[in-house]
Design a protein that fits this description.
- The chain is α/β, with parallel strands linked by helices.
- It has helices spanning 51-66, 90-100, 115-119, 129-140, 157-167, 210-219, 242-245, 273-282; strands at 3-8, 14-15, 19-23, 29-33, 40-46, 72-74, 105-109, 123-126, 146-151, 171-173, 175-178, 185-189, 198-206, 226-233, 248-252, 268-270.
- The strands form four sheets. A six-stranded mixed beta sheet has the order 2-1-5-6-7-8.
- The radius of gyration is 20 Å and the shape is globular.
């Protein structure tokens, strides 16, 4: 389970939640509520995309509403955001599960496309641009001058372009070649890159890592000059090979895969909680 409940005491200090999940012998999830807990529940956090977590989130929201409180969910990895078309329409199904919980606010981080967020009620999107510019780029500057931002394909161009514009760096857009019958990537095209300096690849999701490995191989600039930021590090399968091609790999804690064995414990992980709260307070 990746669902956690957050609370604070009367002084505004973080405290243990009064809600404890458990399963009945029949398999149904439920919540035990501590009658002696003198805390204010603030929000629930769900990382990853399991259906069990969404059921727990719905139970928690119902309990919060019965108490006359707001139910706010931090759901940084929006489930099925990549399934934004086709049959079945996964993004619509997952959105229906979230909407059934009648949450007062759903906070998501850098969703894959605009389709899935438009299906979720009371959603607030936190973009990755500020984190990359304020956290990742300054850290990379300690290893050498950053010479540009790379979008691994045209789908990532807007996201990477926002980072490049804010950081005052040139943007380079690569392109994937795909066999549309099988869906497999057959090659990459990379524009001419600067002869010197670090290059940061920016995208939203790394699953098996094939796109980024192919990009690094085609770029031909050497591992020491390449860094990677992905908002959501699933890091499955061959993603373990990322570290053979990128000297620095950055991601957030939005998905359990970020700290999984495939990542080898070598990815730099940014905790999203303060950024999600700061974005709300600034809006």
């Amino acid at each position: 389970m990746t669902t956690t409940f957050h609370a604070q005491d009367a002084h505004g200090t973080a405290a243990a939640s009064g809600f404890t999940p458990f399963q009945f012998p029949g398999g149904e999830w439920h919540l035990w509520i501590d009658p002696d807990a003198v805390v204010e529940e603030t929000h629930a956090t769900v990382t990853g995309a399991t259906a069990d977590d969404l059921v727990l989130l719905g139970l928690w929201a119902d309990a919060m509403h019965q108490r006359g409180l707001r139910a706010v969910a931090h759901l940084p990895y929006l489930p099925a955001a990549r399934a934004d078309r086709g049959t079945p329409f996964g993004a619509k199904v997952y959105a229906a599960m979230l909407n059934a919980a009648e949450l007062d606010e759903v906070v998501v981080f850098d969703p894959h496309s605009p389709v899935a967020p438009e299906l979720v009620n009371n959603i607030r999107v936190v973009h990755s641009t500020d984190i990359v510019v304020q956290r990742v780029i300054p850290a990379l500057n300690g290893y050498g001058k950053l010479a540009g931002i790379i979008a691994p394909d045209h789908g990532a161009a807007d996201r990477a372009g926002r980072v490049a514009e804010m950081a005052g760096l040139p943007l380079f857009i690569a392109d994937k070649h795909r066999d549309f019958d099988t869906g497999k990537i057959t090659g990459m095209s990379v524009p001419e890159l600067p002869a010197d300096g670090l290059l940061l690849v920016v995208d939203d999701i790394c699953d098996g890592g094939g796109t980024f490995i192919g990009l690094a191989e085609q770029a031909g600039v050497g591992r020491d000059r390449l860094a990677l930021w992905v908002s959501h590090g699933i890091f499955s399968g061959s993603a373990v090979r990322l570290h053979d091609h990128f000297a620095h790999v950055w991601t957030s804690d939005s998905h359990p895969g970020a700290t999984g064995s495939t990542a080898g414990g070598r990815a730099h992980i940014i905790e999203l909680a303060p950024h999600l709260e700061a974005d709300r307070n600034a809006s």
